[in-house]
Amino acid sequence: MDFKLSEEDIELKEMARELAEKKIYPIALEMDEKEETPLALIKECAELGYFGFTVPEEYGGLGMSTTCFMGALEEICAASAGFGIMISVHNSLTCEILKIFGSEELKKKYLPQMATGEKIGAYCITEPNAGTDVGSLVTAATDKGDSWVINGTKSYVTNAMFAGIFIVFAKTHPEEGQKGISCFIVDADSDGITLGKAERKCGIKASDTRQVIFDNVSIPKENLIGEEKNGFKMALTILNSGRIGVSFQAIGIAKSALKEALSYSKVRKQFNRTISEFQAIQFKLADMATKLDAGILLAYRAAYLKDSGQPFHREASMSKLTCSEMVNYVCNEAVQIHGGYGYIKEYPVERYFRDARVTELYEGTSEAQRMVISRDILKE
Fold first, then answer.
1. What is the pLDDT of residues 234-281, one digit of tens each?
2. β-pairing, 140-143 with 147-158?
């Protein structure tokens, strides 16, 4: 496997870094405190093509590889993980499921608008009583002959307030459990859709997260994505892409936390010496850097396998598990190196510490990743 980035990959990664440093990082704390993302920032990223990173050029996207997209995503998340997850969910989940499973008619209808950011996507699968156990979801889609009618409530929907379309998983055959799940694309302006209040989160506060309620929402029959009753398999397939996205989100956060810890250790003095001169701090920095590099390698392996058309579900879970646990370790140590200052909002590591926590929860908990990995290796 060759993880070497192409010149184009490097160029786009550097462009994303420049954008992050000049436009995102300066307002990251304000976004966190206000718990919102400025529309101007969304518009600027849309103009750069970031909402169509992996959408094929024939549908108006940039047509970039997963590896290229993830390099750019890492840089954005290094400045604001809350904003980065908007880009990640839109590309890795909503555009991806249409690209892989959507009919040609659905692709032509929706992908061009999604690629330009005119319609931002939101992914609706989790419910109040259905998280890791996707098969227990109760949202239903009833066949009305020339249409589908959807009823149910979805929880923790990222991008809900900004969404132009919702990707909705619902049971068309409830008696068949997880085998009776199908997937639909729903226009956000459809009658019967209500948004819940914004969730007050520990971290990634710039990201909009809320419930979406579907009350007798009627959609065209052709808005079924893929085959009927194939929703569960589709969800698992797409979540693998999302897990790579979370891996690079974690890498971005960890890189910033390590950078802050290194910088602080070189200027903070105790006992007439900078704390970077103490072996206890040196060993923390060494462990942080080593775990970060291990996560980077696993993440790029997963992206490479996806780009080359090889199976990558185990590697995506290994990457997500390792990177999410790594970023929590790195951010915890970064706060520890800062001492009491690390607990103060004026220091970025406080925000990174909070942002890191969710990476072990969404796109499948760490426990779920271990289930995927262990089941796969036990088949050998």
1. 999 999 999 999 999 999 999 999 999 999 999 999 999 999 999 999
2. antiparallel
Q: How far apart are CA 5 and CA 17, in angstroms?
A: 15
* Tokens read off for 145: 């002959």
133 lies in which domain range? Answer: 121-229
Which of 202, 229, 256 is where one domain is finished?
229
Closest residue by Cα to residue 210 from 160, 165, 168: 160
Residue 112 to residue 162: CA distance in whole angstroms? 17
Which of 96, 315, 360, 363 is catalytic? The answer is 363
8 Å CB contact between 290 and 333? no
Q: Which of 229, 261, 286 is the last residue of a domain?
A: 229
Identify whether 363 is a catalytic site residue. Answer: yes
Are both 215 and 114 inside the same structural domain?
A: no
What amino acid is encoded at 229 in this protein?
K
Write down the pTM of the prediction. 0.96
Residue 1 lies in a domain: no
Closest CA to 127 of 88, 162, 157: 157
Residues 6+ apart with CB under 8 A from 63: 54, 55, 56, 57
Nearest-5° angle of CA 128, CA 129, CA 130? 100
